[in-house]
Amino acid sequence: METFAPPSHSHVMGTLFLNAWIALLEKQGIYDNLKDLRRESQKLIEERNDVRIRVIVAEQQQMKRLERVQGWFSRVQDVLYEVDRLTLESNREDVKLCLGGLCTKSCKSNYKFGRKVFRTLREVQSLSLEGDFKEVAQPAPVNPVDERPLPTSVVGLQSTFERVWSCVMEDTIGIVGLYGMGGVGKTTLLTQINNKFLVSPNHFDFVIWAVVSKDLQLEKIQESIAKKIGLFNESWSSKNVQEKAQEIFKILSNKKFMLLLDDIWEPVDLAQVGLPIPSPRSTSSKVVFTSRDFEVCGQMETHRSFKVECLAYEDACELFEEKVGREILDSHPDIPELAEIVAKDCGGLPLALIAVGRAMASK
C-alpha cells in the first residue's frame, strides 16, 4: 500500500516564503495603482474645471452645451466619487499584507480591491482622453419673439396700431410710450406689436416682454430679460442688481433688441436695468412701454408718445354685441336697444364693455 509522507519542515517554510513574496508583490502593485489613481484623478479634476470654464463662457454667449459634454461631466462626477470611495477603503484594516497564505480572506479582499483600483484607474485615464473637446457648445436656436395670447378679435385699435407700428419702424425713433386710462387697450396694443414681429421681417435679435406693474422692481425686469437672452441660471438669484445689470449690458450691447414694458407707473431707470439706452442717433434697439400717466412718458424721455383713446361709439357697440352674443340680442326685441344704452354708458372703455357684455351673456 502506497503511503504519503507529510511535507517536510523546509517545504512548508518555502511555501510560506513564496506566498509572502507573492503577497508583497500584489500589495506593492495596489500601492502603485493607488498612487497613479490619485495623480490621474487630480489631472481629471483640473481638466473638468477647464472644460467647465469653456462651457460657462459659451453659455454667456447664448450657446448651448453639447449633450456629449454634459454626459462627460456626469461620468466624471461618478468616477471621482468612486476614487474617493476607494481612497477611504484603502485605509481600512482589511487591505493589509497577507503572510503565508494564512489570511485567505484578506488575500481575497486585497485581490478584489486591487482589481477595482485597476479598473477605476483605466476609467479615469479614458475620461481624461475623452475630455479633449474641440467644441463644448453650439449656437442655441433662439426664437427672437415669443407669441403672446390675443383676443380672437380686436375691435377699434387698428388705426392706432398702424400709427404706432409705423413709428416703431422709423430709424430715428428709439423709445415709444403708449398712455391712456386703465382698461383702454394698451396691453392689447402692445401685444399686437409683439406678435407682429412673428410675421414681419425685422433686424432684432431679441424681442423681450416684461410686466412692470405698480410695484416697480428692477430685478423682475432683469429676470424677464435674462430668461430671454439666456442668462438665467442657478447662480442668477445670487447676484445683486448691479451685477445682473453688467451681465445684461455685456450681452445686449452687441445685440439689437426690442424691449416691451407693460404697465409702468413710474419712470424705469433703463441704465440700472442694464440696457444700452436707445437715442435718436442710435436706434438699432428700441423700447416701447405702456403707462396710465402721460407724465411718465416725459420722464422716460420718449421720442414719440401715443394716447390710446376709448372706442368710438360704433366700435363700442360692435365689441359689446360680440361679447353678448347674437342669440341673446335676438331673444327679445328690446334687448338691442338696451345693449346700445349699456354700451354708451360704458364710455367706450373696452374692459368695461367686455365685462358687462359677458355678464349679460350669462344671464
Which CATH architecture of the largest domain is right?
A: 3-Layer(aba) Sandwich
Q: What is the straight-line distance between the termini?
A: 117 Å
State the helicity in percent bands: 40-55%
Radius of gyration: 37 Å
Percentage beta strand: 5-15%
Instruction: Give the oligomer, counting copies of the same chain as homo and different chains as hetero.
Output: single chain
Low-pLDDT residue spans: 11-25, 97-102
Question: How would you spell out the order of helices and strands?
Answer: HEHHEHEHEHHEHEHEHHHH
Strand order of the largest sheet: 4-5-6-3-7
Number-wise, the strands total 7
* Relevant CATH superfamily of the largest domain: P-loop containing nucleotide triphosphate hydrolases
Task: Classify the fold: give the CATH topology of the largest domain.
Answer: Rossmann fold
Backbone shape: elongated
Structural class: alpha/beta
The biggest sheet amounts to:
5 strands, parallel
Domain unit count = 3
Summed up, the helix count is: 13
